[in-house]
Amino acid sequence: MGARMRACVCFLVFLLHLGDGDGLSTGYSPSAFLRSPPKSFRSSEGRLHRPAPSVRLHPLSALKATVQAVDLQDRDPLIFARDISKANDGVNFQFEGLTYTLKRGQKVALVGRNGAGKSTLMQVLSGRLGADSGDVLFQGSPSVIFVEQEPELEAFGETVRETVVSLESPHSLALKELEKANAEATKSPNNMAAKNHLEKALVRAEDLDVWGWESLVEKMVEQLNLKHLMDRPVRQLSGGERKRVALAAALAMKPDVLVLDEPTNHLDVFGIEWLQEQLAGDDTTVLFASHDRRFLNFLADELLELDEGRLMVFRGNYDDYLRTAATRREAESSELQAKQSLLKKELQWMSRQPRARQSRSKKRVEEVENLKAQVKASVQRMKTKERKMNLKAAAVTGSKRLGNTLIEVEDASLAFDEKVILNEVSLTLAKDDRIALVGPNGVGKSTFLKVLMGFQKLDSGSVKKGTTVQVGYYSQQQKDLPHQRVFDYLKGALKASASDEMDERQRALAYEAMMSKSVPVEMAMNNAVALAESGGESGVGDMDREAGVRNLLRIFNFPEARWYGWCDLLSGGEKRRLQLMEVLAQKPNILLMDEPTNDLDLTTITALEAFLETFEGALVISSHDRQFVDRVASSFLALEGEGEVSRYDDCTYDDYMDFVREKEELARKEKEREEKRQRERERAEAEEKRKQQEAEERTKRKEANIYTETAKKMFREQQEMRITQEFEKAKKDREKEEAKQIPKKEAEQKNLKPMRPKETKEFIEISSKLKVLRNRTKNMEKKCKSGELHGRELNALYQKLGDNCSILFRLEEKWFEYAERLEMFGKAELVDQYPSWL
């Protein structure tokens, strides 16, 4: 009885240990699930949830990125889930009877294996998806935004700018209202209603800090590498670009609860560090699922583990979770041992007491059967959890022996439009290389891997591969899996790998036959074909392939119930695991892996790290998972932009980031120095310009003084000249006036009278006649003197000339009389018109 009592006591101690949430340093407390929600909570049914975010912008906090311990008991409950269950296929529950309280300001991480139901649980807690049973209750009306792994954006804007900077966001509306109120107040300054409206609009704008909006948008767009995408239609975005756009819009929205499914996917290290600092320095409640362990350690103050439909809570970050999980496994192991010991004693009692099966001991027998079932379930659960992935068994180095040089890149250049990816880059990949490609998003890491694979053609240069190279390429893009059973799909991958190997073996045997006279060529080829059809020495026939598939599926913890499920119906993480199995099944001796940890659960990532550490071949990876890179890579190949590629050996990711930060700091200081030099140059130029202007001003003042004296002198001379001119004019006017008076006096003396209009007209007519008569007289005189006429004709001409001269004399006499009278009485201008005949 002593052993039995000790086992019972151990079991009770374990239960008490679990029940006391404060008993563990990290605060593991299943009893926390059982609290009832306050009356102010209400169901999520009927609430309108926005699946994709609008923009709400606030200034970034300068808070140091350090998660400090907080007392979760002091926080207000925000979301309460009570006895919720969900089965996506209607039969197999992903979780059942879960109860959990999410408190305001918490940063909660959700972990679990691929396919465990993490995404489904987040959708249920955010109100995006209804539970099959149970309730999800909300305190008040909190705004909840869920950013899924593959967000849909088309409904929220045509372009990235419209999606990120929503015109219907509170900031935009507040700014519009402020502009409207300001216009009203300006138009009607004495209107009290307009003044009150303006004051309310100002208070609203200050509460939302609309003036910091544009600067925050610029910072967010820069950190998430969206600057070049702002005017691009969202329908043209890749999956990673969509994720970054949705994340930017969600962060700007500033909701009460932010639910993020793998937020670090498609972010570079700079973006991840900015994101974790942004979330840590904010009071927004965050529920997130992530495979990035450093991100988990930095941000999480509580972890939820979803395992076989059960939800377990761990206080603290990821390291605390690992320690607590280890402690819990030890406690569960002690509990199992106690139960097994107790069961053994009870079974011995039953075997010694045949009559124990009588009715008086029936209750005890039922208890034994229940204990037996509990022990069996616990043993099965412990076996499942303790089964470690051994990817070493999933793939072995290919049978081909590797040379010293596997891939050689020589003077490779590549550019897309104006963006240079590679600029005369040369690289030799050796068999022991473990290289991590690093650099900001969009610099060309995925493109460089495609260049190594031969999928991307270079503008110039070459890529040469060794003859024994077998490359396994794991793409960042998730494959479109066919509607095929998982088992059959992997079997086909193994068969394809075996066929490739057999093809090479056939070629090798054919070559041997050609070189050897003892082996006929036809016999050698037949042997090769037979070897390929049978599976050969490598044991890759149908039976062996099926065994290999079963081995892979067990290693990757695929439940047997899902072996014959459809590939296209797997979860995102399960599809990525299947893609990884397909690559490893090819038995590569070079692995090119583009973001291999995306969508994988932490168990798979840990196992993949262990495999890659002992992988007998070369490795080139592109990953932003810092802990993963530190474990599997020893060198860094940094794509630094503008086609520049630099290699750093024997360093960690932190070393590389320190170097980048030091380089940025040096660049910043150099920029500051250059700006200082520029300011000094501008000050010197301004000083020189000021001195020049002063000199010009002095010259102008001197010239102005000279001009003033000259002007004064000229003014005096002009004044004197004007006076003289006025005097002379006055004198002339006086003389003219006096001259006018003389004709009048003469006219009076001669008894002349002013010209009448009739006489003036006659004067004009006489003037015209005189001109004609003068011309006629001249012509007659010429003709008389010419000698052309004689006798009577000449006498007749002289007679006419005499008559004409008599008429001319009388008219001239009359004309002079009229002219004198006109001049006497101020009409000399009429006389001056006819001077030509005089």
Automatic annotation (TrEMBL):
Region annotation (Disordered) ranges: 667-704, 729-756
One Gene Ontology CC term in the entry: membrane
Endpoints of the signal sequence: 1-23
Matches recorded under InterPro entries: AAA+_ATPase, ABC_tran_Xtn, ABC_transporter-like_ATP-bd, ABC_transporter-like_CS, ABC_transpr_CbiO/EcfA_su, ABCF_ATPase, P-loop_NTPase
Record PROSITE patterns: ABC_TRANSPORTER_1 (PS00211), ABC_TRANSPORTER_2 (PS50893)
Lineage: Eukaryota, Sar, Alveolata, Colpodellida, Chromeraceae
One GO BP annotation of this record: transmembrane transport
PANTHER family noted in UniProt: ABC TRANSPORTER ATP-BINDING SUBUNIT (PTHR42855), ABC TRANSPORTER DOMAIN-CONTAINING PROTEIN (PTHR42855:SF1)
Nucleotide-binding as UniProt keyword: yes
Organism: Chromera velia CCMP2878
Signal is among the record's keywords: yes
Identification of the protein by name: ABC transporter domain-containing protein
UniProt KW keywords: ATP-binding, Nucleotide-binding, Signal, Transport
Molecular function via GO: ATP binding; ATP hydrolysis activity
Location of the ABC transporter domain: 79-333, 407-665
